[in-house]
Amino acid sequence: MYPPAFNYSAPTSVEEVLATLAKEGEGARVLAGGQSLIPMMKLRLASPSYLVDINDVDGLDYITDVNGHVAIGALVRHNDIVKSELIGSTNHAMTDAAPWIADPIVRNRGTVCGSIAHCDPEGDWNSVMLAARAEVVAQSAAGERVIPIDDFIVDFFTNSLEPGEIVKEVRVPKYTGRGGGAYVKLERKIGDYATVGVATQLELGDDGKIAKAGIAMTAVNSKNTRAAAAEQVLVGETPSDELFREAGNAAAQASEPETNVRGTEEWKREVVSVYTRRGLETALAQAQAQA
Amino acid sequence: MQINLTINGAEQSAEVEPRQLLVDYIRSTGNTGTHIGCDTTSCGACTVLVDGTPMKTCTMFAVQANGKTLTTVEGLKQNGELHPIQTAFKEKHGLQCGFCTPGMMLTSAALLEQNPDPSEDDVRWAISGNICRCTGYVNIVKAVQHAGELIREN
Question: Per the CB < 8 Å rule, is B126 touching A102?
Answer without folding.
Answer: no
